[in-house]
């Protein structure tokens, strides 16, 4: 019996350890079962197969479907090829980027520049030269201020003032997409996105005076309040030249005596100072 007791204690320890391990494993499985039951939902999302520029009308070759895991589906995503084909691109889409309703026009809208003009806005083209177009750097996607130089009726002075600020450029020449290298391009027409009121102001200004475009940072949305400037104010801070000064002649306080200088002897008599001149 004494020889069996250690074996019985060892067997009992093994059974107890196995039972404890089984119970622990069962507990962990019960805790993990809710997580395993909530499997991620998957859906099909349409992606672009290549870079798509503004105005492009989607074809079946431009669209591919992929499984999108998880429950964080993109807002406004397109879920089929048929739902994307025939729609125009109104914002740049990169390769493998999800196609969203916010970046696509309706099928009946077609493609090209018109679909890039938002509701209530107008696309207005103005003729420019190399100076007005800021040496070719006013390209699609940039933002500009419009300055007008004009001689108002009844005034003899020419003045310049900003008439439009933070205006988006839709097209430069026939291009409605920015060059990927950002290189300047020579164009004769710039198309701006404006409101109807701004279209009136820009049209009148381009016919009555000379317009100039000022390129601005696309992140700068602040409006500058400027009074404009007239031609006479250009030199308003300059001082007039006084010209060379004329030397003045000082009149002598007393006549100048000619001849040898006299000899003077100073003497004292009883504390009285006397001068003798010879």
Number of strands: 10
Largest sheet descriptor: 6 strands, antiparallel
Ends distance: 165 Å
Supply the helix-strand structural class.
Answer: alpha+beta
Strand content: 15-25%
The string of secondary-structure elements, in order, is HEEEEEEHEEEE
Q: Classify the helix fraction into a percent range.
A: 10-25%
Outline type: flat
Query: Which residue ranges are poorly predicted, with pLDDT under 50 across at least 5 consecutive positions?
Result: 237-256
Rg over CA atoms? 45 Å
Integer average pLDDT: 78
Total number of helical segments? 2
What does this molecule look like?
The chain is an alpha+beta fold and 278 residues long. Among the domains are: 40-116, Antifreeze-like/N-acetylneuraminic acid synthase C-terminal domain (Type Iii Antifreeze Protein Isoform Hplc 12); 118-227. Helices cover 17% and strands 24% of the residues. It has helices at residues 4-37, 196-208; strands spanning 43-48, 63-68, 122-127, 143-150, 159-172, 189-194, 210-216, 229-230, 264-269, 272-277. Strands 3, 4, 5, 6, 7 and 8 form a six-stranded antiparallel β-sheet that branches. Strands 1-2 form a two-stranded antiparallel sheet. The longest helix has 34 residues, at 4-37. The model is unreliable at 237-256 (pLDDT under 50).
């Amino acid at each position: 019996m004494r020889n069996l007791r250690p074996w019985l204690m060892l067997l009992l320890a093994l059974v107890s350890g196995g039972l404890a391990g089984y119970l622990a494993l069962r507990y962990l499985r019960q805790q993990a079962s809710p997580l395993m039951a909530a499997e991620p939902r998957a859906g099909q999302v349409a992606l672009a197969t290549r870079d798509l520029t503004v105005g492009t009308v989607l074809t079946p070759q431009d669209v591919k479907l992929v499984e999108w895991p998880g429950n964080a589906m993109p807002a406004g995503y397109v879920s089929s090829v048929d739902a994307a084909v025939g729609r125009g691109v109104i914002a740049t889409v990169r390769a493998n980027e999800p196609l969203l309703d916010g970046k696509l026009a309706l099928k009946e809208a077609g493609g090209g520049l018109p679909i890039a003009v938002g509701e209530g806005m107008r696309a207005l083209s103005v003729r420019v030269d190399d100076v007005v177009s800021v040496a070719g750097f006013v390209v699609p996607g940039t933002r500009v201020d419009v300055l007008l130089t004009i001689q108002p009726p009844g005034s003899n002075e020419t003045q310049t003032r900003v008439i439009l600020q933070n205006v988006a450029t839709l097209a430069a020449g026939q291009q409605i997409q920015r060059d990927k290298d950002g290189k300047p391009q020579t164009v004769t027409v710039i198309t701006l996105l404006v409101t109807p009121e701004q279209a009136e102001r820009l049209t009148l200004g381009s016919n009555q005076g000379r317009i100039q475009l000022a390129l601005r940072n696309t992140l700068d949305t602040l409006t500058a309040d400027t009074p404009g400037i007239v031609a006479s104010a250009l030199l308003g801070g300059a001082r007039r030249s006084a010209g060379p000064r004329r030397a003045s002649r000082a009149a002598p306080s007393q006549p100048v005596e000619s001849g040898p200088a006299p000899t003077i002897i100073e003497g004292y008599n009883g504390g009285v100072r006397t001068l003798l001149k010879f």
